[in-house]
Amino acid sequence: MGLYDLIFRRRPPIRERAEIADFIDDQSAFLVQKGIYEYSRARSGHYSKVLFAEAEFKAAVEHARWSAYPLGLAMVGEMVAGVLQKHAEDRRAIVDALTPLVLSVFDRYPIPEALGPGPWREARQELSLRLDRVGTHPPKPVKDIPVPLAESYFNLMPIHEKLRGPDFPTLRNYMRVTLINSHDELVKRLDAPAVIHALGLRPK
Fold it and tell me: Does the pLDDT value for residue 147 go beyond 90?
């Protein structure tokens, strides 16, 4: 494969249940992990290499990223539901089809040592509730989906709260931009009729 192909080749279309599940997994992990690492590097400045080498900080990052992953699944799952709404009739049916799919993505991973069984089980229950609530209101603009979860995400940053400064709006905007980018990629790659059929939904 040449350099041109590596840079400009199109990502494969999304047609199957497994492919939409993989998309949700990849985008959720990217959304939360990129923010954790970039924020930590920005806040630690010249000391970032030293900080990232410390065992205590590595443990804090592991706790943060696994605690944040269900938040990413909730946000990306809601975004996917909004995209599918343009192609399927019943929003409630969309949410009912997506919820077990998103939870199956969560269940791909063993219980993280950084959290333990109790918190991981509670995170799954909260994710299920958040996904269910998506069916109780009209689709939000993509930029507004992260807003209810932004503070919870910010509070997970592995930087002492006294050193965070007034950074919450910046991190919230990062989440909004990143989710918009995920939305744009989904729209480009989605084979809507195939996915609607794979999820057992009725097309418009």
Answer: yes
